[in-house]
Automatic annotation (TrEMBL):
Cofactor(s) listed in the protein's UniProt record: pyridoxal 5'-phosphate
Keyword field: Lyase, Pyridoxal phosphate
Protein name from the UniProt record: Cystathionine beta-lyase
Single biological process term from Gene Ontology: L-cysteine catabolic process to pyruvate
Record's catalysed reaction(s): L,L-cystathionine + H2O = L-homocysteine + pyruvate + NH4(+)
Length: 387
């Protein structure tokens, strides 16, 4: 019987029977792995041959993530960005064409505009809301369509099945960054993806103490990913893997709290006179809500708000003295975060039409009442500057 999702989160990748009954997979600190015979070394007939290519510790997490995402094979990388770059390099070479979503994570965009372009890959950015219209941008040399739904900072929803259909009809692969929803709330392979990327640093770890990425792929695409991953010498530390395995077991209960607090905060912000718009696809007023409702089973705690025009000093007064919201370049941990963002001059396919400055919020696991009180005090400082 196939286990339900919450059961899978707890059991995937665990094999106590081969570890003397130990519930958690032991941490293998290794480099050299010995072969019993010359024949075994020649044929590489044992499951582990060199620690860079895997150990029982790494295999446990790879198996668990693949099971949650619904893919055939997962490989681990030292960061989420390393997962992005490795996946793109696996399918692109000089002369190829990449269709990259215009709302992509900033460092991913930087990789495209520097490393890929100087190695002869043609990068074209497309409107995140284009849907099946992506077919008009396909070329004979298009090898990858890259999606991120919802988009970083601006949170546009993408029609993933429509993108997958157009990509496959044009002979390309669909790669998606699935970090926002995690494998809990969006199943990329059920919607046509060939490769799914996770910044494991975020929700899978959940405790703001690990840098890691993961690439999960179909059986066919996984062979190409594995070859590039190996050629680049990608590996991760066993102690970090242990922390992710431990954090992942509580993914369901953590993410439900992140989602509830995030939606509550989004609704609260929507009623504030200082706020022009809330960018959160789980809100019925959001332009991408119907796509979110069709394809996703939940939301994470990350969203943005657009303020009405205001001076920088007002934003600084609000943010500098918050008690429970920290300012830092990450999300997905237990703590709440808030950071100012600027899309002007970044988007190329779809200019950012914004009423005012953007604040990106991550709803942590603190009490909602404390978070709202903290924000109310922040807005009081904000309004004291505006006058």
């Amino acid at each position: 019987m196939k286990p339900k999702q919450d059961t899978l989160i707890v059991t995937a990748g665990r094999h106590p029977d081969v570890h003397f009954g130990v519930v958690n997979t032991p941490v293998y600190h290794a480099s050299t792995i010995l072969f019993p015979t010359v024949e075994a070394m020649k044929t590489r007939s044992q499951p582990y041959t060199y620690a860079r290519r895997g150990t029982p510790t790494l295999a446990a997490l790879e198996e668990a993530i693949a099971a949650l995402e619904g893919g055939a094979k997962t490989v681990l990388t030292p960061s989420g960005l390393a997962a992005v770059s490795t996946a793109l390099m696996a399918f692109l070479k000089a002369g190829d064409h990449l269709l990259m979503v215009d709302s992509v994570y900033g460092p991913s965009r930087h990789f495209c505009d520097t490393i890929l372009k100087r190695n002869g890959v043609e990068v074209e950015y497309y409107d995140p809301e284009i849907g099946s219209g992506i077919a008009r941008h396909m070329k004979p040399n298009t090898k990858v369509v890259y999606a991120e739904s919802p988009g970083s900072i601006s949170f546009e929803m993408q029609d993933i099945p429509a993108l997958a259909k157009a990509a496959h009809e044009g002979g390309a692969k669909l790669i998606i960054d699935n970090t926002w929803a995690s494998p809990l709330y969006f199943k990329p392979f059920e919607h046509g993806a060939d490769v799914s990327i996770q910044a494991v640093t975020k929700y899978l770890c959940g405790h703001s103490d690990v840098m890691m990425g993961a690439i999960t792929a179909t059986e066919e695409a996984g062979k190409t990913v594995l070859a590039t991953h190996g050629a680049l010498g990608m590996t991760v530390a066993p102690d970090d893997v242990y922390l992710v395995l431990r954090g992942m077991r509580t993914l369901s209960v953590r993410l439900e709290r992140h989602m509830k607090t995030g939606i509550a905060l989004a609704r609260w912000f929507a009623e504030r006179p200082e706020v022009a718009r809330v960018l959160h696809p789980a809100l019925p007023t959001d332009p991408g809500h119907e796509l979110w409702k069709r394809d996703f089973t939940g939301a994470s705690g990350l969203f943005s708000i657009v303020l009405k025009p205001c001076p920088d000093a007002a934003i600084a007064a609000m943010l500098d003295h918050l008690e429970y919201f920290g300012m830092g370049w990450s999300w997905g941990g237990y703590e709440s975060l808030i950071v100012p963002q600027d899309l002007h001059g970044i988007r190329t396919a779809t200019p950012a039409a914004l009423e005012g400055p953007i604040l990106r919020i991550h709803a942590g696991l603190e009490d909602l009442r404390d978070l709202i009180a903290d924000l109310e005090a922040g807005f009081a400082r904000f309004n004291a500057i505006i006058g």
